[in-house]
Each structure stands twice: as structure tokens, then as C-alpha cells.
Amino acid sequence: MPRHLATVTLLVHDYDEAIRFFTEALRFELVEDTPRGPGKRWVVVAPGRNGGATLLLAKAVTNEQAASIGKQAGGRVFLFLHTTDFQSDHEHMTSHGVRFLEAPRHEPHGTVAVFLDLCGNRWDLLQPNDT
Questions:
Q1: Backbone angles phi, psi at 20, to 5 degrees
Q2: DSSP secondary structure string for all residues of the chain
Q3: Burial code of 95-109, b = ≥16 C-beta within 10 A, e = fewer?
Q4: What's residue 1's pLDDT?
Q5: Of 89, 31, 38, whose CA–CA distance to 59 is shortest?
Q6: What is the pLDDT along the chain (131 residues), one digit of tens a residue?
Q7: What pLDDT is stored for residue 25 in this prediction?
Q8: Taken in order 34, 37, 21, 48, is the CA torsion positive or negative?
Q9: Which residues are CB-contacts of 5 (< 8 A; sequence separation ≥ 6)?
């Protein structure tokens, strides 16, 4: 039976703020937003419905969780967003307030630039050379 990574949890401050960021600035799709009791929701977003991993946007509820927001990878790049049109995505994200930490650069594996999500986690926007 083949296996794949299905969902990654991303700690956020606020559900609605996170939904807006991912659906507007990154053009993700809202896959699910289901209430789960007082103050809790099951919120899932994805860059597309083509079989890649989804993100579970989880509102931090404890001090320990809140302290981890924006630091889920200890300052390293945490997630990698692949694209087939780097320039278009970079321009769209920039125009929607996404903060890039560097100018786009060409590496042996593709065109890449590091950006921050709304909580401060580092991501790579990457167009692999094979696309």
C-alpha cells in the first residue's frame, strides 16, 4: 500500500486571519472549516486538490503552543511551496503583503526565494528545474 504525507499542523493565532492569508495571499483552497466545540475548528487548506499535503490550521490554546507559533522549525525553512510559475506566484504574493527575505535566486535545483507566513515561519517558494 503506497503511503504519503497527508496533513501537517501549523499553529496560528487566529483561524480567520490564517484562512485569509492562505486563501488570498498564497491562493490556497479552503478544504474544510468545521466547528469542533467551543472556540475550536478543524480548518484545512491546501495549495490545490492534486494530491499534495494539506495544512491543518490549529489555533494555539496553551502558552506552550503560543510560544511555538512562527518557530515550528527553529528558524529554518519549515515548508516548501512548489510552483510551475514562480514569477506569477512571487508577484501575486508580494502584492498581497507576503514578506520575502531575499530576492529570487537560481539554484541547481530551481528558482527559489524564502518568505514568511503570517506567523513568521519560513517557507521556500520553489520552481523546480524539472517543471
A1: -60, -45
A2: ------EEEEEES-HHHHHHIIIIIS--EEEEEEE-STT-EEEEEES-SSS--EEEEEE--SHHHHHHTT-TTTTSEEEEEE-S-HHHHHHHHHHTT-EESS--EEETTEEEEEEE-TTS-EEEEEEETT-
A3: eeebeeeeeeeeeee
A4: 67
A5: 38
A6: 688 889 999 999 999 999 999 999 999 999 999 999 898 999 999 998 776 899 999 999 999 999 999 999 999 999 999 999 999 999 999 999 999 999 999 999 999 999 999 999 999 999 999 86
A7: 98
A8: negative
A9: 53
Contacts for 111-120 with beta carbons within 8 Å, 24 or more apart? 111/86, 114/77, 117/10, 117/21, 118/12, 118/17, 118/18, 118/21, 118/25, 119/10, 119/11, 119/12, 119/13, 119/18, 119/69, 119/70, 120/69, 120/70, 120/71
The pLDDT score that the predictor gives to residue 130 is 82
